Amino acid sequence: MFGGLQFGLLLACIVLFVPMVMAGWHLSRNKMLFFSGALFISLAVCVHLTPYFPSVSDFVTSVQSVVIFDNRDDSCINLVNEVVWDMKPMREELLVAEPDAVAFEKNWGWSKSWKVMACEFQKLGKGDISDLLNGSWVVVAGDSQSRLVVQSLLGLVLNSERMESIKGDLFRRHSDYGIVVEEMGMKLDFVWAPYVANLSNLMMGFKQNRSYPDVLVMGAGLWHMLHFTNASSYGVDLKSLMGTVSVRSPHLFWLGMPMLINGMLNTEEKREKLSDEMWHAYDKVLRDSRLLHRYGGPCLLLDIQSLSWNCGPRCTVDGMHYDGAVYEAAVQILLNALLIESHQKLIT
């Protein structure tokens, strides 16, 4: 006794081949008619066979169930760092609430140029971030700049009470930190890695464990500049890192170094070694390493230099670490880049 699948196949063969044989008799008289008829019959058979093959049915259903595909291209990725600032003196009531804040309101947004506006970048809220990073493993590795990025990301998904409760552990000097945000199923790890060599070791660890994060943000340079002050050596380390970077992490980001305001640096050693000339030498080596996406590499730049430069001296108290608004902007840039790379778009 024939099963449903066998019976369907038998009917399909009858429907397909009997008319084709009959039409073939007239092939010499009208080839176009024959091939058009054969194509129509083949498509009809495929439609009727779809219910008998669950994998085909599932594929069709999955395509129909996608919420939104984003058709923004690589040009938008290259524009995602185009941020502008609106600086205003902070109101008195805000100064009372935030006595340690630099005394200016820092409002930022994406450039109003038509190219940037066409990309429809937007600031994501907690619900949007929960949807985007749901079930993800995010790793942020580097020095204190990276730690400030972690603080800004967590500030967008945790309430103020929980943020206060974790600050002691998050800012424990020269240490790693990890947290699971259960509401969105996101695991976030900060790895203290102030040198590029530390980042290479981290990448090797991922490879050995055959376990890679969904999102990896990394960056290092300031410690090397301070303690080695040798751009060529930094370049060698970057090339070694390049050899360990795996495409198994689908979303790779490089956290750039901030603008350094020499006169505001808090030690004589920093003012001597972290000069503008040395900063630009390190930046050139980074560009030449081809680690960055804009130069053909795997990592999209989170341009802290541009963000801190445009925010300016009013956004820092020590010439190196900037107000939280700078790192919040970096996180929003990262999130918008993730939307583009994963071909998603928010419904507004």
UniProtKB/TrEMBL annotation:
One of its GO terms (molecular function) is acetyltransferase activity. One of its GO terms (biological process) is xylan biosynthetic process. Keywords: Membrane, Transmembrane, Transmembrane helix. Signal peptide: none annotated. It comes from the Eukaryota. One of its GO terms (cellular component) is Golgi apparatus. It is found in: Membrane. The chain crosses the membrane at residues 6-25, 32-53. Its main location: membrane. This is Pmr5/Cas1p GDSL/SGNH-like acyl-esterase family protein. It comes from Linum tenue.
